[in-house]
Specification:
globular, mainly beta
Length: about 150
Amino acid sequence: MSDDPTSPRVPYWHLYTDDDGVSRQRLCHMTAFELESISPPADPQWLGEKHHDGMTVLFTVQPAGWTGTWHENPAPQWIVPLSGAWWVESMDGERRTFGPGEISFGEDQGTVERGGKSGHRSGTAGDEPAVLMIVQFDSERDATTPCRFD
């Protein structure tokens, strides 16, 4: 361990709803880390902020070739592919593909339908199923603030 450690920057993509009701995606970075032991006497590690909110954890397997229809996330939620690849297209036309370990935070509730689009659509990328871990918050979305975990 270095005598002068630098706090990590963990990237994630935030799918959010702007002030006009359009879903958009922005690259963000978690930066609030403290070097400390998670359970002394264990060696220190970089620990992120704890979020005390009721949560639901679920796993989903999307078959190869699966494409969903336009919809909003049912709740603010972290989505982490464990295997395979998964893509998300927001109403502004931006499309991002996520592979194992890449992080997306879906918080596009409250979009306004435009041209048959509301929220986002998603699907599997490649020729294998996408296994996703989803952590849903019990709380409401955080207005239209992108990158709220920076």
